[in-house]
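ugh ok so i messed up the first submission bc i forgot one of the chains. this is the corrected input, ALL of the components this time, i swear. 384 residues overall. if the numbers dont match what u have on ur side tell me asap before i send this to the collaborators (the ones from the other lab, u know who)
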Amino acid sequence: MDVREGPSDAEVVARVLGGDREAFGLIVRRYESGLLRFATRVLGSRDAAADAVAESLVRAYRHLASCRDPTRLRTWLYRIVANRCKSHLARRATGDVSLDDVPPIADPADNEAALERVQQLAVVEQALATLSSEKREAFVLKHVEGMSYQEMAAVTGERIPTLKMRVHRAREALLKALEERS
Amino acid sequence: MNPIDPRIHQVLDGEIPREALPQDLRRVVERLESAAALLAAAPEGRSVAERVLARLRRPARSPVRRLAQWLTAPHPVTLRIRPVWSLALAATLVLLMLLPEERSVPVLGEHEGIAQFVARFPGAHSVQVVGSFNDWRTGTIPLEDRDGDGVWRAVVVLPAGAHEYMFVVDDERWVPDYSANRFVEDDFGRENSVLIVRPVKG
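and heres the new structure output, hopefully the right one now
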């Protein structure tokens, strides 16, 4: 079943707040994929991202009543994960991502195109890792998660002109890093 | 970092149509879009749903138990000190090490008193006191001459009563305390000083 089908976010939130704890599973399954992708890109580690997302979702459950607008649950969840990632990066002393995860390796049975895609992905991940954490976050929210600047502002707490500038700088930095690797 | 043509940003921000761009700039846009698409399509790792739901099903700990657990669990403590403060801290520690050690106040027993030994030995390198209270052993009660004026002092706690004693100067000269009020002759024909220690809690 497509998790995007079914009751709206507002309905699910109401059910959870009404005592139906298991209904929160619907929210988790609906958003975990995007949250994991976002955290992985920002942190550069799938394990760290899984920890950050899991902790964020537990936190979200405990503070669900403070989600003032359940129709904007998605950006609220991204905001919690973004803050968690920031704390994680701050603890790591430098905002650099470590890329400690082995990039996905194509199965030998896969065709040549799949292998090439894996190689291309590795190059893009390396290029993204050279960006500052702020630029990385901005690029991923805009172009990987497909958010509008307004949604990004809700997630990051930054002003739209600031975010626009950050995305522009991120594009330029990423292009430069890609050129250096081609 | 080289700024890119602003029209590329305008297209990516949806402000102008892609068709408004010349071919070479379109390729730049496509390059960024394909990079983003690769990142979006990449597997995002294992699901955390079960992990999260298992945490939520766990009964919440009572506040008292949480406090007890927090108090008993070890917590890492990180001190971040700016370089200038770390220098100041190091200097303070050195000063504390150089400062004369503060002597602790002795705790006196019921039948003990305080004895002060003072002797004038200008030019001596070491002075100690030996007597019936330390079995005439050297190396146990040294006297000190902190200001180098030749006057050596030691304050010790001794059992109340009469004690015979002598000074040992530079580890070789055994000298009686000539300022003592009483003297006794020992078995070797030498004169020992006598000190009467009175109990403080008398």
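quick check: The first helix of chain B runs from residue 6 to 12. that seems consistent at least. The beta strands of chain B are 112-120, 127-131, 151-159, 161-169, 173-175, 182-185, 191-197.
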